[in-house]
Amino acid sequence: MFTLMEVLKALAPWFTAAVVVVLTPTVKELIPQAVSNYLSSAFQDYFYSRLTYINIEEYGDFAVDQIYYAATIYLRKKINDSPKPKRFICRKAIKQNKPICDIAMGEEVIDNFRDIRLRWKLRVVRTGHHLQLQPPPDKNIFELTFDKRFKKEVVESYLPYVIDRAEEIQREKKGMKLYSPNCRRDHNLPTGQEWSCTILEHAATFDKLAMSPELKRSIKDDLDRFVTRKEWYKKVGRAWKRGYLIYGPPGTGKSTLIAAMANHLDFDVYFFDISNVDSDSMLRQILLTISNRSMIVFEDIDCTQLGKRGEEKKDVYSYSYRKYTLSGLLNAMDGLWSSCGEEQIIVFTTNHKDQLDQLDPALFRPGRMDMHVPMSYCTMDLFKMLASTYLDFTEDHKLYGQIEELLANAEATPAEIAEEFSRTEDADAALEAVVEYLKQKKIAKKSSRTEAPGAEKSSRTEDPGAALGAVVIAEES
Hints:
This protein is of the alpha/beta class. The chain folds into four domains: about 5-50, no CATH class; about 55-175, no CATH class; about 175-375, Rossmann fold, CATH 3.40.50; about 380-475, no CATH class. It has helices spanning about 5-20, 25-30, 35-50, 65-80, 150-170, 215-225, 230-235, 255-265, 280-290, 325-335, 380-390, 400-410, 415-420, 425-460, 465-475; strands at about 50-55, 90, 100-105, 110-115, 115-125, 140-145, 175-180, 195-200, 240-245, 270, 295-300, 345-350, 370-375.
């Protein structure tokens, strides 16, 4: 049998809640202030002591926090289902199909997970004083609130679920992103502002690529094998990354190949200009913010002035001094720091592979640049692929024999042939224009070969007669 005190004690929280809820300003005036304060305090002690708060900061030590990033993506799907938020932040890039809506600062989103009610709230934490000359940036945080009884289930089940669901949403997204670094020389990078991006819409595919079928198949097979070997990389103790060196003259399709690779894998692309990097720490900071399932492209790697290890300039007052080093790049690519990212493709491009011997061979060894991909001048096989793509022309033509002979000597790039094809949709007219173009290329190439020796010989003497004699001898030889 319950005593009166036990009954009153059991009903006290509910009685307190009811009193506090129904109290109006008029009623409050009729009871002592001390009693009103006690009832309000009892209400808050009972209900708010049952809640647990988890603060999830936007940035960790080096990059965006994974839970914060996942929550941002996850909550975009929950906004419409939650009755709470009344204000949103909406934005839309020109090439996006529909706007992206995020919760505004101070707003809440209610979620339910296994009968657990969870409340997400976006807040900002001031980290500096307004009188500071350079106050640290404010911190954005997600405040996650729930009944403290479910703390273990929220931490061990709900948060991993949010991360997994966010990854699924990312894989389901339509369209890739193209990133460019915001770094400028002699400027520190605010955390979270390392990159700017736009929607990447490039029609390049392997089917449309002017490349030998064997090389094309080899690259596709290598990419497909890479993305399915997560456990293999873990087993052998290597970072889940793969490197490609793409080389060839300008206009041979290096950028188009990169776009085709990105489309094939559905990877975002990060174009990286290392010449704007001031230090190894800045290089590391930028590379650590690159997301998984992405391609990191270093264009014209031969122009980076990396030199060889041990040969970096030591004169800090020299104008050409580079604070970043080859060792810093190698450590970021496949050293201990490389384990911070996975399922990434690293691409080096160069127009002059013969100049790569000026760089350290360690930069291109297997394990860093696993596959070397040559991009050549247009051959007859590549020409027929271009004719099929641009002109829908798949038959042999009476001009093909002449074109094949001209291609063997003219050194025309696929881009040059494509430009001639793009001027008309008439196949006969286009092929005739190509023949004329290749003839001019052949004449120009022959002229450059005959003029160069003469210019070299004539520069050795100021005597006109001797100079002309030297030119004749050079041409005859």
